[in-house]
Design brief:
By secondary structure, the chain is mainly alpha-helical. It has one domain. 82% of the residues lie in helices and 0% in strands. It contains 6 helices and no strands. It is globular and about 50 Å long.
């Protein structure tokens, strides 16, 4: 049942983003920034944690989840390091996800035959 719930909620998030892309003229990069910032704001307000516990991977995998991870990292670093944590908390929390994206993207580029667009 957890898989079905995660699939439905993750699919609903993706469907809402697709509707946003179709009905507005926003560029995909701006929509991604909106999602990350939205996840951070929901985390700051204390809404995202209960939502993530209910939805599981359906809430933690999309870009909303990345914003939540960054915000949690900043909160923890500020608690430990003080104001310096504002600058280092997000980097520490998001390092693994960003590194994995770069490494797997590089591996995919080696395994596929990419072509330049003209």
């Amino acid at each position: 049942m957890e898989y079905i719930k995660a699939f439905l909620i993750g699919g609903l998030i993706c469907a809402l983003v697709q509707i946003l892309m179709e009905k507005t003229k926003m560029l995909p990069g701006r929509i991604m920034v909106l999602l990350v910032c939205g996840g951070a704001v929901l985390s700051f307000l204390g809404i995202y944690e209960p939502f993530q516990e209910y939805a599981g991977a359906g809430a933690s995998v999309p870009l909303l989840g990345f914003g939540n991870v960054l915000m949690k990292g900043v909160k923890d670093a500020v608690d430990q390091e003080g104001m310096l944590g504002l600058f280092m908390g997000g980097f520490k929390a998001g390092a693994v996800g960003c590194s994995a994206a770069l490494i797997f993207g590089y591996i995919a580029s080696l395994l596929t035959n990419s072509k330049m667009k003209n």
